[in-house]
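Section 5.1 Outputs to date
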Amino acid sequence: MPRTGPTAKQQSLAYSDDVKVRLGAITYTGRQKGVDSLIVTDLIELARNHAIADALLLSGDEDIRIGVQIAQTYGVRVHLLGVQPAADNQRNQSRLLRQESDTSEEWNRSDIEAFLTTQVRPSSTEADPPVAEESVVVAGQLDQVAGDFIRARSPAELALLSALGERDAIPDELDRVLLRNAADILARYLDPSERVHLRREAKRLAARGHQQARQSIATGETEADRIRQFVTETIVEPARREGRATISIRVGDVARSMGLQRNTPNVVSALGGRKFTELARVALASRTGPSQGPNTEFTFDLGGSSRS
């Protein structure tokens, strides 16, 4: 699932009868991590709660084996499905996983073509050049990402970025945040030219914002002030322009966007105080999750009226 939320296809699937959609997070490189752990957790929890009697598992990874073993101790039968060639000598499916399962079956090409079709991705020489209008839209999105990224930076980080030359690389810890934010917005990995554009715009804005950051230091602006301003400008106001009545903000998402993963208590404190509700013109409707942590979530009424 991209950071912006479930796609239209994912939401459509979730409305289907007898279907439970489980979505994991996609990294800024466009890959989903921790899939094996999610499958193992599902197997164990569903078996332990007697929610299933049989599990059909499409996998070849030996890391799933522990989940199979534990599920079987609860009486669940695990049926392993492979895609040809999945035989032992082909190494597409773990030998130990095949041995552990109660039954195993292998589907060939004709079995799969009965319900799936494939499209061959054209090579770079065959692909049509991007439409100019689409390029302008993407460039605008990247500029917005760069602006949000710079607004979330500390004065020290701005000073570092503003001192970089055109050929100087952005420090890895900041570059990862920048690229991840852009990939979340575009719901895909950036191509080389887009990365160049994004980094150049970030450096340009950093140079322009460095002086403003120095003025902020002189006036005593704190990290909490930056958090409140960032959330107001990048989350609350866009939601208000969309006409939404409420908005839910997860602390971990804000911390990740601002590079404050180690300072989530500061994010909680900034969003939970009166200063934020007054600045953003919102009213706190509810607060769920742990008292301090990335999974703490605030829900605000965008109308700004207090709730009794």
